Amino acid sequence: MTGPGDPILTAVQMRAAEQALIDRGASIESLMQRAGEGAADWIWRLSAGRSVTVLCGPGNNGGDGYVIAETLRRRGSKIAVVAPTGPATEAARAAKAAYRGAVVDRAKGDLLVDCLFGSGLSRPLDDKLVGLLCDLAVAHPHRVAIDLPSGIDADSGKPLNPGLPDYTLTLALGAWKFAHWTMPAMARMGERRLVPIGIEAVPEAAGLVEKPSLSVPARDAHKYTRGLVTVVGGPVSGASLLACEGAMRAGAGAVRLAAPLLHPAASPDIVLKDGPLAKALDDERTGAVLAGPGLGRADEAQARLRAVLAAGHPTVIDADALHLIDPERLSGFASPLILTPHEGELRQLAAAFALESESKLDRARELARKANAVVIAKGPDTVIAAPDGRTVLAPSPTSWLSVAGSGDVLAGVVASRLAACGDPFRAACEGNWLHGEAARVCGPVFTASTLARRVAAAYAACL
Questions:
Q1: CA-CA distances (angstroms) from residue 114 to 248, 277, 443, 452?
Q2: Cα–Cα distance between 152 and 172 in angstroms, integer?
């Protein structure tokens, strides 16, 4: 499988999905019971008999907290509920009425469960509530957020208040929200787990990238049917060689490096092309061209990029080449196209394409539409956006990926998958999963060249 897995919903989509369940016969109270009991199962295991404090707010997130508290109390946990205000919804009032334990003003214990506010919050918490939340966080070494940490915007992942606490575990109720997988919020959430409540598929919802299902070459395969990748390099050899290494280990049958200078350090598996670029690109068997790693930004680089676009092959534009494109340069390019900007490059493209969006997610989507390209907005919270609106989040499995050259490897892997399948969105999803899995296999403290060599192991895991 590739493409979106578990759905990621906006706050509006989540409310609509819950309403759809209610329209089919569920009640708010039954959904609250389902969510609270499911969350209590996780908290029971994490608390392991230690004392638990549940902080309940006035809304339905607070109602979930009362269900959690009563479920744990019946199982024998030592429970205290802190409720700075009374419940304000009918379902929350019913949940509080069913709770048979203590309600206190303050508490100190082993584990804090934050049910103050969930995904419906759109404005900052008042100072009194922030103070209470932070004081309780200090008094409890382990903290669990229910649905979302209080004070986090569900759609943008931005904190609505400064100085909010970190969490050991965050339990998403019903469906993932964008804040669970986007910075800066995801850095504070600890482990994340999903508590299902019966939410069904939501049309046009975003999702998480899934492990791809790949295959061995066909019996009659040869190097060109498996995919020919041409990497268009420039004066800097290291980046383009890393891209070639990534491409070779992601399934491509042949990898060529078209560069103005021969690279003595190149692997013998890479076919070097140092003649006229137009001739290197004039091969109808080419499955994908990668331009950018090591290309440079001088006049010669611009000429080489023009040749790439004129050739009209499926293309991945990365690194230096991203600084050389604009709407005029891409005008008329009709082949599959993938852009792979990191944060700084995305800012540059926002200026070049007059993007109006502010968030990374929205910028990636807008750029995909305006450039008619699949966009891989890289980072710890990678966003993959297609021109037709499909969106996938591919969070990094390890912060050790923050190493020079890892983006060059990713570009090569994505180009390899594009040459193999011809579908830019699928290639972007497969490439990102393989890149992340290779990093996970590497363990701590690795270099980009080591990362490239581990791509084959990631591929093997998908067979």
A1: 48, 60, 33, 41
A2: 13
Q: What pLDDT tens digit does each residue of the chain (463 aa) get?
A: 445 668 999 999 999 999 999 999 999 999 999 999 999 999 999 999 999 999 999 999 999 999 999 999 999 999 999 999 999 999 999 999 999 998 999 999 999 999 999 887 889 999 999 999 999 999 999 999 999 999 999 999 999 999 999 999 999 999 999 999 999 999 999 999 999 999 988 988 999 999 999 999 999 999 999 999 999 998 878 899 999 999 999 999 999 999 887 666 678 788 777 778 999 999 999 999 999 999 999 999 999 999 999 999 999 999 999 999 999 999 999 999 999 999 999 999 999 999 999 999 999 999 999 999 999 999 999 999 999 999 999 989 999 999 999 999 999 999 999 999 999 999 999 999 999 999 999 999 999 999 999 999 999 999 9
CATH class of segment(s) 228-460: alpha beta
- 142-146 β-sheet, strand order: 102-104, 79-82, 52-56, 111-115, 142-146, 169-173, 191-195
| Domain range summary for the chain, segments of one domain joined by + | 7-205, 228-460
For helices 448-460 and 424-442, what crossing angle results, to 10°?
110
Rounded Cα distance, 383 and 100, in Å: 45
CB 322 within 8 A of CB 408: no
Q: Which residues of 215-226 are buried (b: 16+ CB within 10 A; e: fewer)?
A: eeeeeeeeeeeb
Q: Other CB atoms closer than 10 Å to residue 56's CB: what's the count?
A: 30
Are the C-beta atoms of 341 and 317 separated by less than 8 Å? no
The answer to whether domain 7-205 has CATH 3.40.630.30 is no
CA 224, CA 214: separation in Å to the nearest integer? 18
pTM over 0.90: yes
Name the maximum alpha-carbon separation found in the chain.
Answer: 81
DSSP H or E segment with residue 9: strand 4-9
